[in-house]
Write a structure and sequence with these properties.
Layout lengths: L5 H12 L10 H14 L6 H14 L12 H16 L7 H10 L14 H4 L2 H5 L12
Length: 143
């Protein structure tokens, strides 16, 4: 799914909020699209606890279990939110979100494997990292 308009970004974010976004549309790019929209339009939800609640509820609605091995992952979410905030801060407040998203997706975080630059696989996909924030054990995040 190409996300090339701000309307598409809003549809994704609002679909996560109201739990109507089809699970097939909840892609890597859609996660970042939602994060950008939330930072700009609903900063009250763009917090670690806000994201935990929002994504866990969305997962429940799409029959994705939130367990120690599936569903919501706190470290991935927090790192991704930091990446989204970093890219958003580089643009003027009125910049179209789809342009910010395009730049983010063309960068290293646009690759779903980007977090493995910072965490060993066993650390990142361990229970502790899923439940709470775990600091990178390979190299610090650049933002």
């Amino acid at each position: 799914m190409m996300i090339s308009t701000d309307a598409a970004i809003a549809r994704i974010a609002l679909g996560v909020i109201d739990r109507t976004l089809p699970k097939r549309d909840w892609t890597h790019a859609a996660h970042f699209a939602a994060a950008l929209w939330l930072y700009r339009h609903r900063p009250d939800l763009a917090t670690p606890q806000g994201m935990r609640t929002l994504i866990s509820r969305y997962n429940n609605a799409t029959l994705t279990a939130n367990t120690d091995s599936s569903g919501y992952h706190h470290t991935i979410t927090c790192a991704s939110m930091r990446a989204a905030a970093h890219y958003l801060e580089r643009y003027a407040p009125e910049a179209p979100l789809h342009r910010v998203l395009a730049a983010l997706m063309a960068s290293r975080p646009g690759n779903p494997e980007w977090l493995l630059d910072h965490w060993h696989r066993d650390t990142l996909f361990g229970v502790l990292a899923r439940r709470g924030w775990v600091e990178p054990d390979r190299q610090p995040l650049p933002f």
